[in-house]
Amino acid sequence: MPGRTPGWGAVGGARRRGVAHGAEAPAPLGRRERRRRALRRRIYEVARELFRKQGFEATTVEQIAEAADIAPATFFNHFQSKGAVLATMTGEVLEYVGELVERHLEGGGSIGDQLVGLAEDAARQIADNHGLARDVVLEFVRRESRPEDTVPYLTRLQGPVADTLRRGQERGDVRRDEDAEFLAEMVLGALNAPVAHWLADPNYPIAERLPRAAAFVWEAIRIREPEPRRPVRAAALRPGRGAGPTPRREP
């Protein structure tokens, strides 16, 4: 099973600093633009830490500005509101979730190990950023949801999970009486149940229930090895229970 994945803040930062394979290096930035970006990043990091410690609702723009050592007006030069900061975090988390899914579902090991490993990694990130993680998911649901759509974060996972289960079917690990798309819906439905409880109740033990849900649904979709048939001992056969009639004694 893959090792622990770095937190979503570290992953997002690494991607922003890197250059995609095969892409041309961007033109160097001028000093003024570098300073502007550095200040925006500092505001963002300070806000994220405050959101993590005291919650999104309890944090004010004035507190963010004070912690970043800037005037409130400077904050608004970079973000329209504290909600805009949270929206930026949501985009970063989605980027991280894509890397998390790719890391686990395209790695080695059994399909069950991959699903449980993904759930365990997600649960660790939630435990490390409990209040902030919940605010980010709620913001994503608010921003992306439309009445005619399913849960938005599930829609993004449907394709990768279905592809993984399809490979499992080809290897003989996953049941083939249902198609991979349907099985992916069932897997995501089971994983979404703890998330939905957690969004409704912040005290719900999602860090413990999410991996359990993954293990539970894997048991439902995997192919089990047939149990070996136990030989019937001759001594166990009694008259009237499969041994045939008792021979009649001649007088």
Characterise the protein shown here.
- By secondary structure, the chain is mostly helical.
- The chain folds into two domains: 35-79, Arc Repressor Mutant, subunit A, CATH 1.10.10.60; 82-224, Orthogonal Bundle (Tetracycline Repressor, domain 2), CATH 1.10.357.10.
- The chain contains ten helices and no strands.
- The protein is elongated, with a radius of gyration of 27 Å.
- Residues 1-6 and 10-21 have low confidence and may be disordered.
Q: Let me know the number of strands.
A: 0
Helix share bin: 55-70%
Treating each run of at least 4 consecutive H or I residues as one helix, how many helices? 10
CATH class of the largest domain: Mainly Alpha
Q: Distance between termini?
A: 75 Å
Mean pLDDT: 78
Q: Identify the CATH architecture of the largest domain.
A: Orthogonal Bundle
Number of domains: 2
The amount of beta strand, in percent, is under 5%
Shape: elongated
CATH superfamily of the largest domain: Tetracycline Repressor, domain 2
Uncertain runs with pLDDT below 50, 5 residues or more?
A: 1-6, 10-21
Structural class, by secondary structure, is mainly alpha
Sheet with the most strands?
none
Secondary-structure element order, N to C: HHHHHHHHHH
Instruction: Using the CA coordinates, give the radius of gyration.
Output: 27 Å
